[in-house]
Amino acid sequence: MLRLTSGRAAIALAITLAVVVFATPSYAQTGMVKGKVVDGAGKPLEKAKVAVEFKDGVNRRYEVSTNKKGEFIQIGLPPGGYKVTASFKDLGEQSFDVRVRLGDAAEVNFMLGGGEAGKGGMSKEDAAKAALLKTVFEAGVTLSKNGDYDGAIAKFMEASTIVPTCFDCFYNIGYAYMQKKDFDQAEASFNKAIEFKPNYVDAYNGLATVYNAQKKFDKAAEMGARAAELAAATGGGAGGVDAEYNQGVILWNAGKIAEAKAHFEKVIFMKPDHAEAHYQVGMANLNEGKLADAAAMFEKYLELAPNGQNAATAKGILPQIKK
What we know:
Immunoglobulin-like; 4-stranded antiparallel beta sheet; 16% strand; 323 residues; 53% helix; 4-stranded mixed beta sheet
């Protein structure tokens, strides 16, 4: 329960009635782009540069490099249209337009320096395997979105037998187990995803949520910090915002209000229209007795989310602190 240094009974009553509710992070609210870059002979190109540019009005640009297998991935992408460009010294560049959807992976493959573009860089066997994986994976996504988590787990497990290193499969298995509140299985699945992709921001966020739910706040903070660090190293995006917000939630639940506030303020800096971060900063200001600052944050929250999950609480507090 939050307490103010002010002795005003009306404010104390408002705080007593206020319930701080944190939203469970929605990991399906972003998408990703992944693929492979090869040369004209089909040989993987390591350290090819891949630029992912948002085309729908907001200036966002992400850059990644391919690994030894010529593979790349950019996670934490808001849905919309993107231009994806791969380039490599002396082999030129190639671009494709792709559409990123919620909770889905857009795949685009490049062949630089000759040959056909797109999936033409794959063998027939690899193309068939990729098509099967896509079908099974998308079935799992649909089941998960519909709340059939057992069915989703079965599909993602099937997908992992097609490509045993499918880190997205294990992440989604972890997410489904988390919704079932089977935290041991969720933890194991997120760790498996990280085993195959050590810089998987969303998997670290998943672990942070699992540990937070179990009140293992030190471990939650460690995973959240790792997610934030990786998100910053890979260009931020929605993954970085989620990581910062999760850190704030974890620290708040651990009673570290000032530290939590700093993370929520960083979320606002990164994403000025993040309603829940405004609400949490408002609650932190209220805890510090900064009533005017708290009121400003609550008003901004209501502007951004007039029917949000904390709207009733904010509306109840505002008249008390503006007297």
